[in-house]
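On clarity, I found the account of how folds are encoded harder to follow than it need be. What matters is that the chain and its backbone geometry are given together, residue for residue. I therefore recommend that a typical entry be quoted early in the introduction. An entry of this sort, consisting of the sequence and the corresponding backbone structure tokens, reads as follows:
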Amino acid sequence: MTPIEIFALIVVVLGIIKLIVIFINPNSWTSVVKAIFAKPMLTGILSLVLAAVVLYYLLAEMTIVSLFGAMLFFMFIMLASFAVFSKELVDMMNSLVSQRNIMKRVWLIVVVWIALMIWVLYALFF
């Protein structure tokens, strides 16, 4: 199997496990979410490291532009998934943006996004 095929299999296996757990006992998924976010700094750094590793392998078979094109598909799927929670998400967003330190909390991921977007623009136009 290629790395992309392995990544796809990981997504499918984790998705099936999540769906089975949620269908059997939706409340039990709360403990998984709590465990993942118990140490937010560790979760964030580990996620970025894993993202970098995955990106390295993805770029062996596709371009950053094609990756961003695929991300648009994923963004619409996520939007459809979150649309059913629109009231809760709007309330959460209002709470987050009212905090004075929000940019201190998200600066690293903002820098990562800006770097990736600049990379895509460079690949498209230069």
